[in-house]
Specification:
Blueprint lengths: L2 H4 L5 E5 L4 H14 L6 H14 L8 E2 L2 E3 L7 E11 L9 E9 L5 H13 L3 H9 L3 H9 L1
Parallel strand pairs: 1-4, 2-5, 3-5
Antiparallel strand pairs: 4-5
Helix pairs in contact: 2-3
Length: about 150
């Protein structure tokens, strides 16, 4: 899967303001709504938060990957947000997060969802890439970093 086919400058925001998991999830959903990637924001929120209740999607190294599946989603959609301040996301390493990658996918299509999560997790194992994303000044710069 090519991240550039899923992410665009319109699905990347660099100055998230939220200070809680719920606020961050809502900001990420705002990105997808404004970019016209989702039609039913309520169903998307429910899918994401249901998944969070099962197990937090706060990973390691300051990254969270909130994700979910919904019957209102036809094709995998994703966005990236970077927070100015670290946010507690109940991460595996108990560290706060600054990079948030949200993805939503259809209920019946597992392949693209798993492939996207695998590609993102591999990408962010690099401390250099994480630092570059946090220091990026434009969405275009984030896209360039992700494609390198």
């Amino acid at each position: 899967m090519n991240l550039k086919t899923v992410l665009t400058k319109d699905t990347i925001r660099l100055n998230l303001k939220g200070t809680t998991k719920e606020e961050i999830v809502n900001e990420l959903l705002d990105i997808l709504t404004v970019a016209k990637k989702i039609d039913d924001r309520g169903a998307a929120y429910t899918a994401i938060m249901d998944r969070e209740r099962k197990m937090s999607t706060g990973m390691k190294h300051g990254i969270a990957i909130p994700h979910g599946k919904s019957p209102t989603i036809n094709n995998l959609v994703a966005c990236i947000g970077v927070s100015e301040a670290p946010v507690d996301f109940d991460s595996l390493d108990h560290e706060p997060c600054r990079i948030f990658i949200m993805t939503l996918s259809p209920l019946e299509k597992t392949g693209p969802h798993l492939q996207f999560l695998a590609e993102i997790s591999l990408l962010f194992k690099s401390s250099e890439k994480r630092r570059e994303i946090i220091n990026a000044s434009t969405p275009e710069e984030v896209l360039r970093i992700l494609s390198e």
